[in-house]
Amino acid sequence: MTRLGITRLGMTRPGATRSGLNRRRSAGPGRARLGLTGVALAAALLAGGCGTIPTEPAVALRVGYDTLDGTLPVWPARGGLATDPQATAAVAKAVDEWRSPVNDRVHLPTSGILWLGELDGARLAVVAADVPGESASWLLQLTADGDRFTVDRAVEYTEPGYLVYSDVLPLQLPSGRRYLVSARVDRLLGPNRDPLPVTDGLTGPVPVPSCAAVTVTARLRPSESLPNGKAAERLLDLGTGTPGPRYPLIGDDTGSGSRALAGLDTCGLGARTGPFGSIAHRVHDKASPESVPASWPIDRVATRTLGEVDLDGAGTPARLDELTWRTDEGMMTAAVIRPAGGPPAVSAADRVEPLQLYVVPLARPVVVLTWKNTTDSSLVPPPDTVRRVDRPGLAVLDKPATRATFTLIAPDKTTQRSVSPN
């Protein structure tokens, strides 16, 4: 996801940073002034006795995208139908009619058709869609039915900024996972570390499992922003079972995410009770369950081992880990218990707090509390609390039958966290 020095519409992307543009920015004063001008013009026309108000002509959806790395077009037009005016007009119409889960529309002048052609006996279009209402970028897949195109898959790019600053885009087709790559990609390695054949920017079907994370690695050729290229741009694909609008590719340059997610069911992680899907995105202070969850990962997935816990009283320890990852709303965490002879169990997400509290859904659910241990901090549990694990910075106990509140007392702050039986 390297985006150094790429120019878009006269703006140059800053250096090696992922912060870039704010994904939740407002529409901005420029659009507000434009709207007022339109109202004033309409009033003037009516006052002058004009019988009709002229309408703006339809704006065509560009083919390719106006991103440059020096003089290199990063996303040139690809596909056998990219120069077909009837096909491009039909795609533009379908994209103009599409709406996001919160009913925002695509801004066609700042969007583009990345690929348009025949694939597997059908006509396919891939569009990078700019949705200014949410300051979001969407990857749209469209297929043709006769002369019309329809959006049949839409995923929201989770990283703040523009989708087209990425170099590898995931497609989900009847034949399986494929990747569309930018002109900066010199080679793409699949999950088995084998080079993937690329034709006109598009790979063939790639063996990606439904509910497990696998690594794909891009080698980027030298360019103005990367004078020496980049040997390994690592990405984690969370699996073909990842439902839209969740974006299935996350950054993993260090490889920590691959290690952290090994053996975990990514479909379960993305469920509404799992860590990646448990905190809903909110729009106007209301939960938007059809949007990408606020807890959906961008990158920096990692894990650390907290210790062992005896779950059955038989002396068979299970490993207790803490999972961390970066989201659009900051770092989040979860607890993972890996029994010696069974599937792992994972809590819901918790935002970073002085006192982390997780409920792990085992046959007998347990509560895990972690905090930064210092000589002058102490955890105060409810009276008569029996702890399975009691050590500095970590407590594990059975989930209480009634509401319980735990207090972390530190010199500068007192933090309380509560857990309910339901």
From TrEMBL:
What is the source species?
Answer: Plantactinospora sonchi
Start and end residues of each stretch annotated as Disordered: 1-28
Protein name (record): Lipoprotein
Source organism, top-level taxon: Bacteria
